[in-house]
Amino acid sequence: MKKIEGNHGKSSFDFQPLLDSDNDGLTDDIDDDDDNDGIPDIFESRCETSTPYGSPSATLLSSNHVTSLYSDYNSFWSSSTGAINTQAIDDFSTLLAFKVGTKTYATGVTDGAMFDSDANGYLDLMDTNGDGIGDLTVEETLWTALKPVTKIKSGIRLEARSIDGNTSSAVGPLLTSGGLPFNPYLYAGQRGLDMAYAIANIGNSWYFRLGGSNLAAYGDGIMDILLTQGAQLGGGSNYNRVHLLDEDGNYLGNGVEVNWNNVPVVGYSMVDQYNADDSVSGRNQRKAIRFAAVELSEFGLTPAEMDKAVIFRLEISANADPIFFAVNEESFVTSCPALDTDGDGIPNSIDLDSDNDGIFDAVEAGHGQNLVDGRVTGPVSNDGVPDNVQVASQKNNGTIDYELKDSDNDNILDFLSLDSDSDGCNDVLEAGFTDVDDDGFLGSGILSIDSSGLVTGQGGYTDPDDLDANGTPDFRETGSAPNITVQPHDTVIFDGSTGTFAVTSGNTSSYQWQISTNGGVDFSDLVDSAEYIGTDTASLQVKGASLSMNGYMYRVILYNDGFACSTPIVSENLLLAVKVGTVITNKRITYRVKKSNP
Asked: Where is this region: Disordered (predicted)?
């Protein structure tokens, strides 16, 4: 492994306050793409891990049902289990507050109905009757939806029916389409708390990496986790299960389960439904909404375990239908720990080459946008993600309009992988760059890294090679060395006649036939001529063979020009035997017939 030195002046993540790494006018603490490479920070920091951790611990049932909801639908909307609003939400509807037990919790979503009466930065009053005066005291809490990274490509997408501007027919889906993952449906809107979207029947488990939990939040009587159910319950089990784990994947305490069959309906929505292939599966469908909350004390953690909880596991049954899953920011550190994949002292979120392979992350991501020094050109909106990698409905939501490349489907995205296609040839070489010490990093020796995480003085950062010119960069396309499946064999040709040597092979882009006239001691390349045709193909024709060629030897060298790590493969040596062309055989004597001119 190369030693890495940086001139960035820090060896750990000692960020300065209000740093704006990409100079887009948004400080990193509120910027969802700190380096403007078109890859949201949640992917660069791998805020969700794909590592499965053994069998979960047993779960205990939770009964903290949400009994009232408040949203900004039609300016202000509320509904409760005891007095369900007859108006079903059918458009954007961001959650402002919710009630569990005797407490009503502000979500932190800013709105004209919410007030911060003591100017401490937290909302504490809500105007429920539209007179402009806060009349309901709410808990000063901030809630944020977690963002799953694992691609969601199955299930039914639900969109409030009016979002597409047409209540009589479904003309979407609008949030994602064309095979893009459905993930944004689970964190749309301010703080990711828009109830206008949901995904039905996605049954899955996620492991979210969090920055830790707040010890003071255990047993303080304040809810810490908010779970949602946004469609009709199916037959059988309908549940969410939550577990907490330490950094090594050990389960802590017991799990907590919400059985949606036992949770009362708190409101309704009217939605259009879309299948995985974007076809319509339903129009103007009325769906029941159920919410439930969890308090950290329900996990039964010991004091020692409380300090170790950094992974949040959420399991959703096949019949459950989440709108979002959110956590209390006062209970969890919702920003996941920074990662530095290449160990160069620059966190991935501000590193334009997170694996030091000499290929910009923005190129490996696969969005195909114009770049200047590894950053996407053009404007950014309030989320800090370049507008050029977002559709209009996604701006300011931290989402993207393309699928990050994972060429080998190993759950390690290309921009974090040294061998994106798992063909045994590192990306740096397949891109056409140098890696003398063969460690997957650009260049050799002690690397110098600039403040943007780029290797300096070693080349790289140009368009990666596409040696077979098929439109797919070689680092993304599985390659291998040529292999011979059927060796060419010795051939007998009568003088003056034509014969053929042929090889059957795989992974071969070019051929070179060679000849030896001294018994295989030396070989030289052949070129097409009056005597030879196909000297650079799989079949070599020898034309008009003469007796003087008897005993010549041939072989073919095979190349795969599209695989940077390929070494040429040489066939076995072949013998050409040239025999007398025209004969008359009479018992034991063979006569050569001399042809005379007419």
From this structure: 1-42
Contact 32, 195 (CB under 8 A): no
- Residue 587 CB partners (closer than 8 Å, separation 6+): none
Residue 48 confidence (pLDDT): 79
- What token pair was written down for 14? 């000692």
Residue 112: other Cβ atoms inside 10 A: 11
471: left (phi over 0), alpha (psi -120 to 50) or beta: left
Counting beta carbons within 10 angstroms of the beta carbon of residue 30, is it exposed (0 to 12), middle (13 to 18) or buried (19 or more)?
exposed
Whole-number Å distance between alpha carbons of 104 and 137? 8
pLDDT of 582: 62
CB environment 355-373: b (16+ within 10 A), e (fewer): bbbbbbbbbbbbbebebee
| Tens-place pLDDT, residues 250-291 | 999 999 999 999 999 999 999 999 999 999 999 999 999 999
CA angle, 22 then 25 then 31, to 5°:
65
The SS3 call for residue 260 is helix
Task: Return the residue matching tokens 């380096």.
Answer: 35
In angstroms, the Cα distances linking 516 to 85, 402, 579 are 91, 55, 19
- If we measure between CA atoms, which residue out of 137, 187, 171 comes closest to residue 396? 187
**Cα gap 238→258, rounded to integer Å:** 9
DSSP conformation letters of 422-473: -SSS-HHHHTT---TT-SSSSSSSSEEE-TTS-EESS---SPPP-TT-SSS-
Place of tokens 């027919």: 169
Strands (E), 478-523: 483-486, 491-494, 499-502, 504-506, 510-516
Q: Is 263 left (phi over 0), alpha (psi -120 to 50) or beta?
A: beta
pLDDT tens, 111-134?
999 999 999 999 999 999 999 999
Structure tokens at 183: 């993930």
Q: Which of 172, 196, 234 is nearest to 77 (CA)?
A: 196
Give me the torsion for CA of 114, 116, 117, 119, rounded to 10°: -160
Going by the DSSP 8-state scheme, the letter that residue 593 receives in this structure is P
* Two structure tokens written together for 242: 């939550």
Cα distance between residue 113 and residue 91, in whole Å? 18
What is the rounded distance in angstroms from the CA atom of residue 403 to the CA atom of residue 419?
19
d(CA 126, CA 113): 6
Cα 533–chain centre separation: 49
Longest CA pairwise span in the chain (Å)? 124
Mention every residue, 6+ apart, whose C-beta is less than 8 A from residue 86: none
